Every structure is written in C-alpha cells, then in structure tokens.
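**User:**
Everyone, produce one record:

**Assistant:**
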Amino acid sequence: MSTRKLVSASLANLLIPISGLLISPFLSRELGPEGRGLYAALTLPIVVWGWIGTYGLQDALSYHVRQGRLSSRAAARFSLVAMVPLSVLAVGLLAVIGLLLFPEAAQYRQFLILALCAPLHVLANLFIGALTGNSDIRGLNLVKTLPALVRTGVVIVACLAFDLNAYQAGLIFGASVLAGLVFGLVRLWAAPDPPVQDAAPPKSVPTGSLIRYALACLPGVLAAVSSARLGQIVGLPLIGARELGYYAVAVSVAEIPMVIATAARSMLMGRQASGDTRAATQVARLAVLASVVACGLLAVSAGFAVPLFFGADFAPAVVPTIILCAATVLYACMTIYTAALLAYNRPAWSSAALVAGSVVGVVALLVLAPLGAIGAAVASFASYAITMIIAALGVGRVPALRSLRMLTVPYDDDIRLIKEKTAGMVGVLRRTGPPPAGPDDVSGTVETEAAAPPPASRLARIVATGRRLGVGTLGVGALIILAWLRVVSSQTMQLVTAGRPAFNSREVPSSPVGDIIGDGFTLLFLLLAAGLAVHGLRRRRPAGYPWIAVALGALLAIELAGILRGQMPGAVAAAFPLAAIAIWAQRPQVAVLGTIGVLGGLTALGSMFFAAVRPDLALLSGAAAGDKRVLLGGLLTGPYLHSNVLGLALALSVAFVFCLRRPAVRWSCLVLILGALVWTGSRTSQLAAVAVVVLYLVMRLLPGRSWPASAAVAAGALLVVVVPWITSDPESFSKRGQIWAALLERWTESPIVGWGPKVFQEPGLAADLGGQFNHGHNVMVQLLVIGGLLALVPFALLCFVAWRRSVVLAAGGQPAALLFLVAFSQVSWLEASHVATTLTGYVTWLPLVAIALATPASPPARPASPPLAAPTSPAQATTARGIARVPAAAEHVEQRAFLP
C-alpha cells in the first residue's frame, strides 16, 4: 500500500513540474530571456515566502496531526487564525525585500501588488502540512495539483490569444492558488479523526507545543528555502536577467525528479500503517533509486531536449541543467534524511543540516557569480551536498532507523519486489490469451473478444492477435512505421538543427544528424522489405504475376527515365519496388493499413505540439503563408517543409482511421487529424477529408452501396486528367496554369520516357514555371514529365486494380480502401508531392500496392450447419471436432476483429 501511495503522490507532484514545462516554452518565447528572468524574479519570492511564511508551522502541524495530538478540523481552524499575523508579516517583509531586488520603481510597484498573494500561498502550505500529518494523500495531491492545472490552462491561452508580459503572468500565477485553498479547507473540515491509541482525543489545540516545534524547525525552513531557490531569489542583481533566465530554465528541467523525494517525504511524515520501520521506509529507498534513474536520463537528454523545447536562444542552459541533475540526486537524499529527522522528533538536527548547507550555498554563489548560470548551479550542488552529509549524521543518531541504508540503498526484498513487478508485466505479454472457444462457437468467440476483459487478459489478447495476423501483416505494418519514422524524424532533426529553409528554396540547409537518422531508417526499411520478400517467396509460390508487374511498372519506368537522362538512382530508389514485392509475396490483410490512420493521428498531435513548443519552426507566416487565412500565429507545417505537404499526409490518412477497431482510438485519431487539417490551411486536403467523412457516413447509412464513393473517385480522376489540358490562364489555380503549361510543353519533347525524377532541379526550368517548384502540382502532369507514358499508363492501371479490389472490400464491410481512393483522387488534381519516389511518398505507394495485392476480404459467414449426430466413439468425436474447426470460420472471425 505504501508503494502505491508513493506512486500516486509522485505522479500528482509530477504535474507541478510538468505544468512548469508546458508553460515555460510559451512564456520563454512570449517574454524572451530577459522577460523570463524578470518573471522568475517577480514570482519566486512569492513562492519562497509561501514556505518561509509558515515559520515552521507546516511541519509542526504535520507532526502533531501524525501523533494524534491535533484533529484535522482543529488544524484547519488554527491555520485560519494564524493567517492574520502571518499575512501582516508576509506583506511587510516582502515590501522590504522588494527594495533590494527591484531598483526600478515600476518593477517594484508590480512586485508590491504581487506580494498581496503571498498570504494565500502561506495558508495553502499550512493546509498541506495538516493533510500530510493525516496521511490524506488524495487531498494532498489535489491541493497541490489543482492550482497547477488552472495556471497551465490560463497561461497557455493567454500567451496564444494576448500579448502577455511578466507582470500579467505573475498575477495569474499568484491567484491560481485559490483553487487549492478552497478544496483543502473542505477536505480538512470534513475529514474524520483517526482513532488514537492509549490516549484520549485532544480537547484543545496544543498551541504552546505547536509554537515550540515550529521554532525548532524555523532555521531549517529558512535554510531549505535558500538552498533550493537561492540562485533564483537573488539572481537578478548577482548574475543578471539573461543568466537568470538560463538558470530558471535549467531548474525547471532538473527539478522534475524532485517530485519523487517530495512524495516520499510526505509519506514518511504521515501516520505509519504499522510499527515495522523497515517496511515504512521502503518508499524512501525506492524514491532514491527512482531519482537516480530519472536524473541520469534527464542529464543524458539535456543537450538535445533543452534547445528543442525552449528554443535555440536557451542553449547556454544545457550545462547548468546537467549540473543540477546531479545536484537533484543529493537533494533527494537530503530531503528524505530531513523528513526522517522530523518524523522522529529531531527538528534541531534537520535545521542544523539545512542551515549549514544554506551558508555554503550563499558563499559559493557569491564566489561563483561571475560564472553566471553555471556558477549558480555549482553553488546549489555544494549546498545540497553539505546538507545531505550533516543530515546523514543526524539520522545515524536515531535508534529506530539503525543505518542510512534503511533510507537510501534498496534491500534484497526491495529488488525482489521490482523483479516481481517486472516479471509480472513480461508474463502478461507472453500469455497467449484465453482458452479457445468450442468447435462450432464462432459467434461466441466474437462475443468474447467484444467483451471487456480484465487488463491482463486484454494484453494477452493483443499478443494472440499479433500471432494470428502472421508475419506478412505485421511486417508490412512495420514497413509503414519505418517509412513514417524516416520522414518525420529526419525532417524534424533538420528543422531543429539547421532551421527552416526559405519557401521553395534550392538551398536547403544540411543537417548531418538528420541525414544519419534518415539513412538509418532507410536501411532498416530496405532490409525488412528484402527479408519479407525472401520469406514470402520461400514459404509459398505467390500467384498473380501480372499484378506485381503492374505495381512495379510505374516505379521502374521513372527510374529508367532517370538513367537515360544520366540521373543515377540511389539506394532509396529500391525501397518501393522491394516493398511491392514483399506485399505481393506476403499477401497481408488490408486491415494493416489502419497503421496509417494511427500514424496520421500521431502526426497531427506531434505537429500541433511542435507548433506550441517551436512556432518558429512548425508554422508558416508572412509571405510564406501567401493569401491564406492564418490561424494561431501561422499555418501548421509540423515536421514538413510546407503546410500543404502536411495537409496531404493527413488527408490521405483519414480513410484508414476507419480500419481501427476501437471507437476511442478511431475517433481520437479522426478529431486530431481534422483539427490539424484546419490549422494547415490546405484547402484541397480539407475538402478531400470532408468528402471522405461524408461518404463514410453515407456508406454506413446505405450498407452495400459503394457507388457514391466510386463516383467521387471517378470525378477526381476526371479532374486530374482534364483540368491541366483545358486551363489556359497562367494565373489560374494559384498560378498552377503556368506550371502545367510549361511542364506539358516539356513533356511533348520526350513523350514516351519523360525526363527523370530530377527534372525539377534543372536551372532553366524555374523561369518557365515561375518559381522554384519541386513537383508538377498534378499527378498526371507529374508522371508525364518525370516518366512519360511508360510511367503514366501502369500507374493508371495500378489505380484501376486498386479500385476494383476496394469495391470488393467495401462490399465485405471494409470501406477504408475505397475512401482512400476518394481522398487520393481529390487531392491529386492540384498537388503531386505525395507521389514522390522516395520514402516521403509512402502514404501513396504503399496503400495503392497493398490494396491492389493484399488479401481480399473474407467471404460472408455461412449459415450454421445442422448439428452433427452425436458421436458414438472417441474416434468419431475427434473427427467431428476436426470437421467443425474449419479455417474459413477462423479467418472470418479474424477479419471481423478489424472491422469498424
């Protein structure tokens, strides 16, 4: 139970730094380094005084409630009464401190107004102390997290909708604590008093005892605050606003693992469930181990994560972040040591350790101030180290604890507990699912899968489903994921490391890291495709040689045109031909294309998060956005180079959302994709997505009627063919008329084989097109100019075969393939970047080939046959069971599992 409480408290406390991380990128970009430093200088004294202003009463309340000497309601009344003198002291002393921190009169006036919120933070901490002593972990979690959640939502909306300054952000921060105060008061007032053994219930508030305990804790409280936040409190006059901004960002990252030690502290100071000291301190040992692991991961990822989330301007914060990650390990140990000292009535030792560490931190900060943020981080490290050492000496004097290992180093039973939990998770993954159904109980099997199983059974069913799908379906799904990772990861890394290139620029900045990542995923794709092809060909002899020739025809024609023009293909040119052979050899289920639907949802979610964190990289604005209406600061591009390209990737993913079985996943992905599509401003993609959703609803209302979707496919194909030929005005369709006319004229010079995939890199072509363009903005024009009729004819035949198969699939209850062709035909008459022969075209080539070559839908279920005669012998019974388990029935159940 204590371990569960530790996890619960840690997760709740984790919301606070997560809130800071979510807010910090918005504030950092809204305010800049200097404004971010000013915000820290305005708000941190309020936070710190929320701790100092209790004058040790927070820990005194925890101790007395823990010992049963004070009821929860009495603790609440005492806190409210104590707030009267504490509020006067808080505001008065902060006014004096503000004179030292803010030499400018305007900033000082703002600070005085914010200081009026300090009493609210003091009262919140008094409530937290009482809830801690009562071991009310749920109430404690909500009092801490409700203000963080309110603050996160209000600040993000304000940053997006208004021009926020440091003072306004500070007002939001100070007032957000009201949500936690109201809940804490209600929780304490309604809390039942736990039974007190060997003592009568308290009849009066032990005011004298509370004050004496608080005075013993007071030096430690002052020292702990200065140790934890000293660099930010006095950083403005010592290291300047810019270095303080770097240091504040480093603290916001490195303080994340502190929530584990804070949760362990709350549990150590609460009521013990048993008298077993070793069992009661297990949470401390597990907390130290978790802190070490978390700090190590943060330190390793800091070099990449800090510039990514906070912007390149905050790159100097990387080194302070690494130093503070190491310091956080010491902080975890010192927090647990001092909590144990307070729990075992050793407040003087706790105060002595914290005071000594604070003195060392102050001296180190004054000496190392010229080093800026790095010096402040080193000072914090030294402060934590001294506090930990002295607190450890005090813990050694507590007879009940016996040794420091009881608080820091896991015992064998702790390691055994971790191994058991891990083994339990692995065991769940290795299970093969529930026993099979009876011989004729096909419907019963479907009902069992539709029922809500317990979590372990659900995971086992996932594994069993993967085994039923087979190597082919899983392998093709992995190919789709690898292609998506190759596109998204390499382009994201290029944007982060080299910046966004100018629109349609030929000079794209090189990113060695992005190139390495992209080449790695390309190699994995090639190896997996080759392995699947060899495995499928060795296992069985696939039929349908004409169809694989159709699937390969357009790709090979394009590469042949390039070779004839002196454009030697690279290794990536073999990716789609190998993938086509692998699909033909493996014959996967068409439901595997649901992977594209999930990846579309992830792309939408990641792009919107990228825009929130790095709007300079993930949004197009100004001249690059053209005449389109800009939403939320720009057009959403995500990891792609243009919003239209992201729109195409999302629009072509919409149809495959309807392959997903679970409604929650299906509708979540659909909402994310449609929301991101609105933000892209890609009108062609938006119309295609709307057509897909409307036709899906029509097909649900009219089961078995696929002609509306087929008519939409035919209309889109007609537009693809006719519009470029009849458009004569060069300004038509956003100057696409000029592009089409120039490319079709170039095609007439080589109508059979075209000019190869690198024709758009020719210097003289840009003048004819009216700009630097990378594709023909129409699929027919694109294929004619790069591959001629040798590419267009097999591609058209491939689309026709895919349409014929998709009609069959739609009749079997799987409309996703036909809906994809709707989207594809609708976007292809104004765009063509989605038919690239590199892996960026995966969302077109892989679905078309998979639809044309994959296993068709299972036949409808046959009526149940009459029951067999009762067997008269064991041999007849065995024969009857063998006849009943027909493969067709099993395949039908397997297909139904993926229907929407």
About this structure: Residues 428-456, 857-900 have pLDDT under 50 and may be disordered. The chain has two domains: 2-192+206-416, 458-853.
